[in-house]
Amino acid sequence: MGKKSYISFLFLSAIFIFTAYSIGVNQSALQLKQANERLASLEEQLKIQSMNEVENVEQLTPELTEDNNENQEIKQLKEKIRKLKAELSKSSSNKEPEKKVFLTFDDGPSPLTNEILDILKKKEVPATFFTIGNMMEQYPDIVKRTYDSGHMILPHSYSHKYSIYSTFDSFYEDLNKVEEVYKSILGFQAPSIVRFPGGSSNQTSIKYGGKDYMPNISADLRGRGYSYVDWNVISGDASPISKSPDQMLKQVISGSENNKFVVALFHDIAQNKATVKILPDVIDYYKKNGYTFRSFKDVTEIEMKELEKRGIVNKPVVR
Ligand code: ZN
Q1: Whole-angstrom distance, CA of residue 7 vs CA of residue 271
Q2: If you measure from the C-alpha of residue 245 to the centroid of ligand 1, how many angstroms do you get, rounded to a whole number?
Q3: Domain encompassing residue 23
């Protein structure tokens, strides 16, 4: 390439680059212009909208002025209607049966009870403990702590031996003994609400007192003015699934679904670490699902009737 043609090549290249650059700049300028126009049109739309809103507010004002001028009587009527409406919505919500849960712990007290009490305190919920007399004698301070923390203690059995189901005498001897221990520790007579070892429908009693023993003893106990409490949700902490806390939690939840009145059964025996492990989650589940936590310390007559209706309290034992 000669010097001349090299210079003209450079010159042409310069022209080409400049032209390309100018086109690019123009294009950007065009885009900028378009964007600005769009922004202006958006601003205009916004302006129109806010003007409409101002107009709307202005349209509302005459009504407000009229309201201020309305006489006292109309104001009082309006207030009455408002109150009636509030009452109506309140009474219609009362018709919905409230969800309630009674957490119950059997066969304690034991050192585990202290851990359970700590959780209940942290979560601020009450519970009921159906205790064993010979354990109460071993841990009187835990019994007192339980009651003083706002929870209920009710008699379960003195010995928790199924041989108590041999005769009426053997049953009442055991019951009287746990009631004596109860009074000696807490200083007052035990209430007449109990839980049978194994529950009112237990089959083990048949081995001792025969097929009719539970139907007969439960009717006799009722005749003496007692009530007995069973359960309708089990945690499984006294069964082989106590090895799996996850399975226990699932069992409690599945038993509580569509169940507005829950009496859940746990055991505060020393080795039940899984019970302590799942208890916070169990409580959170009931809280999340709108349950009120209740105990037999301040159970109402209406609640006892409801529990009876649902076969949790004083369920007739049929063989
Ligand atoms: Zn028991």
Answers
A1: 99
A2: 20
A3: 1-69
Residues 6+ apart with CB under 8 A from 218: 196, 200, 228, 314, 316, 317
Q: Which pLDDT tens digit goes with each residue over 161-170?
A: 999 999 999 9
- Distance from the CA of 64 to the center of ligand 1, in angstroms? 69
- Is 284's pLDDT higher than 90? yes
Please compute, for residue 1, the number of CA atoms within 13 A of its CA located in the half-sphere on the CB side. Answer: 8
Residue 93 lies in a domain: no
Say yes or no: 157 and 282 in one domain. Answer: yes
Residue at 228 is within a domain? yes
Residues with CB under 5 A from ligand 1 (ion): 106-107, 197
Tell me how far the alpha carbon of residue 156 lies from the centroid of ligand 1, in angstroms: 7
Q: In this model, does residue 122 exceed pLDDT 50?
A: yes
Cα–ligand 1 centroid distance for 234 (angstroms): 13
Task: Encode pLDDT of 49-74 as tens digits.
Answer: 544 444 443 344 344 444 555 577 76
Q: How many structural domains comprise the chain?
A: 2
Same domain, 119 and 39: no
